[in-house]
Amino acid sequence: MTAHLAHILRHPIKSVGYEEIESAPLTRGRALPFDRRWAIAHQAAKPEGPMTAWAGKQNFLRGAAAPSLMAIRAATAADGRITLTHPEAGSLAVHPDLSEDQAALIAWLRPLWPAHRPAPRSVEHAPGMALTDSPEPYVSVLSQSSLDALGAATGVPLSRNRFRGNLWVEGWLPWSERALAGRNLRIGTAVLEIVEPITRCRATCANPETGHEDLDVLSLLQQLNGDAQFGLFAVVREAGTITRGDHVEIS
Questions:
Q1: Residue pair 14/40 in contact by the 8 Å Cβ criterion
Q2: Residues whose CB is less than 8 angstroms from the CB of residue 109 and which lie 6 or more positions away in sequence, other chains included
Q3: Omega of the bond leading into 157 within 30 degrees of 0 (cis)
Q4: Predicted structure pTM score
Q5: Is the CB of residue 29 less than 8 Å from the CB of residue 137?
Q6: Whose CB among 35, 142, 179, 193 lies 3.0–4.6 Å from 165's, allowing a Cys bridge?
Q7: Contacting residues for 139 by C-beta, under 8 A, at least 6 apart
Q8: Would you give the DSSP letter of residue 173?
Q9: pLDDT-based confidence at 127, cuts 50/70/90?
Q10: How far apart, in Å, are the Cα atoms of 32 and each of 10, 163, 165, 181?
């Protein structure tokens, strides 16, 4: 089977909603457009004022600390307004750059965040940078067949949204992507270089449909492969447009 790009996913607000898109322009040395463009800082975040540069994940709300966040879905309109939905919190439409909408977003998130943790404080945006877990402008690449194999090991199908990835490839043999470090992928008119595997956190244990932990995905990965890695970090080496259904060529 020829490998192809099956899904493109982005997360406009870090750990607060996922959405699938049809295509995207990739820029050399940049993350997927509008992926982790914003993040929600908590009251213990450093620095204490507005962030002007990349900051580590420990400063923000994230699914590893609050499984309920994993059940948020996002839909971005042409005017930049993002509609967030959650099975318990309902829906909220916001533009993350507007102060009044930022206040509404913080209030909407507060019941979904554990009371014993520092409370949500502010909506942050670092100009020109994605607030991903790493300061490098990575695009994540994952294998659908490896996800299917992981689900078969649990006895239940697993949602790809447990892994908050960007590009999902169909057509590779299960786990074969683990040998791709240093190789290039041509997708559409873009070229990405695979840099390293992704080591997973506890957020993957939460069901994206319910926001409740239901599987120890980390232990299962350890049993299957001897580590907690799933998916790959890549960097864009040649700019271009990617579209769902594009062939994926390895070189």
A1: yes
A2: 16, 40, 61, 69, 120
A3: no
A4: 0.96
A5: yes
A6: 142
A7: 26, 31, 32, 35, 166, 167, 192, 233, 234, 235, 236
A8: P
A9: confident
A10: 7, 16, 11, 20
The residue assigned the tokens 């873009």 is: 190
Beta strands in 87-227 (DSSP E): 90-94, 120-124, 139-143, 167-170, 184-187, 190-199
Mean of the pLDDT values across residues 8-14? 98
| Strand (E) or helix (H) holding 146 | helix 144-154
User: Could you write out the DSSP letters of every residue in 127-139?
Assistant: TT----SSSS--E
What is the rounded CA–CA span in Å between residue 214 and residue 218? 12
Q: Which tens digit of pLDDT belongs to each residue from 168-184? A: 999 999 999 999 999 99
Statement: residue 82 has pLDDT above 70:
yes
Structural domains for the chain: 4-30+134-250 (2.40.33.20), 39-124 (no CATH)
